[in-house]
Amino acid sequence: MPHVMNLYPFFSCARQADELIRTTGALVYQQFNCEHCGTKQTMDVPNKFYTKGDCEECKKTTDIRKNGCNYMVHYGKH
Fold first, then answer.
1. Residue ranges per domain, the chain?
2. Distance between CA atoms of 38 and 25, rounded to whole angstroms?
3. Which of 5, 21, 33, 74 could form a disulfide with 27 if both were Cys (CB 3.0 to 4.6 A apart)?
4. 3-class DSSP state for residue 69?
5. Which among 30, 28, 39 is positioned nearest to 73, based on CA atoms?
6. Dihedral of CA 18/19/24/28: which sign?
């Protein structure tokens, strides 16, 4: 069974991520659960939020704005 993380409203996550990027210089990677197969996915471009995402496992598209998302934060030297 795939790992299913907690999801939060898209715009809430985007606002919080923007605040972290601006105030700490962190790299923020958007994450979502595939709405088709449930696999946790992480976008490979930091500091950018997408409204749709393609699953690397099942190749189907998830509506992230509708389903919600989360993010991973990387602090330190980049």
1. 10-74
2. 31
3. 74
4. strand
5. 28
6. negative
Task: Please name the amino acid found at residue 51.
Answer: T
What's the rounded Cα separation, in Å, for the pair 42 and 56? 10
Q: E-strand spans in 1-78?
A: 27-33, 40-42, 52-54, 61-63, 70-74
pLDDT single digits (tens) 38-67: 999 999 999 999 999 999 999 999 999 999
Cα–Cα distance measured from residue 43 to residue 33, given in angstroms and rounded to the nearest whole number:
11
In degrees rounded to 5, what are phi and psi of residue 27?
A: -95, 130
pTM, entire model: 0.91
Considering only the C-alpha atoms of the chain, give the largest distance between any 2 of them, rounded to a whole number of Å: 37
CB 44 within 8 A of CB 16: no
